[in-house]
Amino acid sequence: MKIHVAVFFGCRSVEHEVSIISAVQAMMSMDKEKYDIIPVYVTKSGEMVTGDDLFAVENYRDMDTLLARCTPVVLRRTPNGVVLQLLKKGGLFKGAPKELPVDVAFPIVHGTNCEDGTMQGYFEFLNLPYVGCDIVSSAVGMDKAVFKDVLNRFGLPVLPCITMASADYLANPTEREDMLIEKIGFPLIIKPVNLGSSVGITKVTKKEDLSDAMELAASFSDTILAEHAITHLREINCSVLGDGEDVKASVCEEPFMQDAILSYEDKYMSDRKGGKTGGSKGMASLSRRIPADLPSEKSDEIRELSCRIFKAIGCSGVVRIDYLLDTDTGKVYANEINTIPGSLSFYLWEATGKPYKDLLDDLINQAFRRYQKRAGLHFTIDTNILSGLSLGGAKGAKGSKLS
Fold first, then answer.
1. What b-and-e string marks burial along 219-243, b requiring 16 or more CB atoms within 10 Å of the CB?
2. Theoretical Cys-Cys bridge with 23: which of 9, 62, 126, 385, CB 3.0 to 4.6 Å?
3. How would DSSP label each residue in 50-76?
4. pLDDT in tens, 45-72
């Protein structure tokens, strides 16, 4: 019997389109002999739909036509497990709605409102096995400041930073900018605290450009992060796969930047030769060197560090950790973690000797293994606290005592 895998993608995020690309890549690569794949596209306004047309990335060019051919759905917990309930257009039921069983959820979502623990909490609420990081590790990974705090606690290398509320900056921009210049100086990096894919990030080398960078970051997040920009920099990435029992690091890669920082366009809108492709290959289209041209001891250092970070955050599934390598000092700093990386970093695992199909198998198996472990934990207790309790009728709690 096939395993029913519901793949969730899209969502209300600035990385919405990237999620579509990553999800379609994964669904195309899943073993059709093992899995019954159910695409669940979450629109930018939050509605969930399914349909065979969601398997082809070309169909997303005309979103109105695509959605007209899809069926609205909701997830529902039943005594026999979780089902995907198909609804008639317009939200009305037509007799008994058709239900599709869901054995495991596979979220392939990027950014806020989904990758940050929001969707993971939804699956926990439904008691549905799901692939990837749990609520806490997802939330920590999304917030760059919290991520740095956790790594600092474990003695892992990160650049110091300053954070401030966007509202505080907008209320007194001159004072806040002067403070950053005094404490950090130029060059510096300004970024939203909880976005991925390099959205809203700016390298600033002079005071005249600082206001624009701060306002851009504030437009994407309620918290702004500022840190020193390494002058002579190489960006190195490494993926980690596993759970609490077994953790492995991939080979390292070095992505190539078109500018001072690796931008959204670099990541998703350039092919391997530098031409524009419209992002149809997602992170797999980025110009990169795999494996990175590093001394073996430096590569081993980064891979070992990646496994330590994975465990420190409490991750599971597949992640990608992005590093800053200061070529003047040779020091490596963890920049950020992507708990659901673009294209699921399959290209790094293929270079490590694991085909994409096998990577997807591992991720689904890990989801079931975690679910079985959690099944042995206690989430409720038997009490008789409601036995004989009276709140004095509908108007109040007269005579009741709760302490």
1. ebbebbbbbbbbeebbbbbbbbbbb
2. 9
3. E-GGGG-GGGGGSHHHHHHTSEEEEEE
4. 999 999 999 999 999 999 999 999 999 9
- Cα distance between residue 146 and residue 144, in whole Å: 6
d(CA 7, CA 184): 43
Other beta carbons less than 10 A from residue 385's beta carbon:
7
Token couple for 243:
């759970």
How far apart (Å, rounded) are the C-alpha atoms in residues 308 and 311? 5
Over 158-204, what HEC string results?
A: CCCEEEEEHHHHHHCHHHHHHHHHHHCCCCEEEEECCCCCCCCCEEE
Structure tokens at 296: 């073996």
Query: Which tens digit of pLDDT belongs to each residue from 246-266?
Result: 999 999 999 986 655 544 454
Its pTM stands at: 0.86
Are 318 and 240 within 8 A, CB to CB? yes
